[in-house]
């Protein structure tokens, strides 16, 4: 995925999240927006690495780590799933430079979302 495509996704996802959850602005302010953008670049970088290594588990491990870090900072794990679902939807909405890479991203995002749902059911 090229730089422009990443910038588009990161900007779009961040804007959507802050429109859907205005309390995040109240809680985290401008710093929260910057951290959300940074986090989304990390999501995309980890997806790229996992796809390059053909390792869905690498992205699942990243998702577990992310969940631990963000929940310790007061970010509900449902927002991680929401973020991944937004990435998944946006990846399906336009044509990308590397369709094979995008297919892998979508598969790994879907697996991570399902994994998070499994974790929630284990907690019940």
Describe how the helices and strands are arranged:
Blueprint: H1 3-20, H2 23-52, H3 56-72, H4 77-91, H5 99-123
Helix pairs in contact: 1-2, 1-4, 2-3, 2-5, 3-5, 4-5
Q: What would your notes on this structure say?
A:
There is one protein chain. The chain has 124 residues and is mainly alpha-helical. It has one domain. The protein is 85% helix and 0% strand. The protein has 5 helices and no strands. It has helices spanning 3-20, 23-52, 56-72, 77-91, 99-123. Helix 2 (23-52) runs antiparallel to helix 3, helix 2 (23-52) crosses helix 5 (99-123) and helix 3 crosses helix 5. The mean pLDDT is 93.
Summary keywords:
mainly alpha, 124 residues
Number of domain units: 1
Q: Helicity, in percent?
A: over 70%
- Uncertain segments of ≥5 residues (pLDDT<50)? none
Radius of gyration: 14 Å
Helices and strands, in order, run as HHHHH
Strand content: under 5%
Label the overall shape: globular
Q: What is the averaged pLDDT score?
A: 93
- The count of DSSP E runs of length 2 or more, i.e. the number of strands, is 0
Profile the largest sheet: none
Distance between the termini: 38 Å
Structural class: mainly alpha
Q: Please report the number of helical segments.
A: 5
Characterize this entry briefly.
Helices cover 85% and strands 0% of the residues.
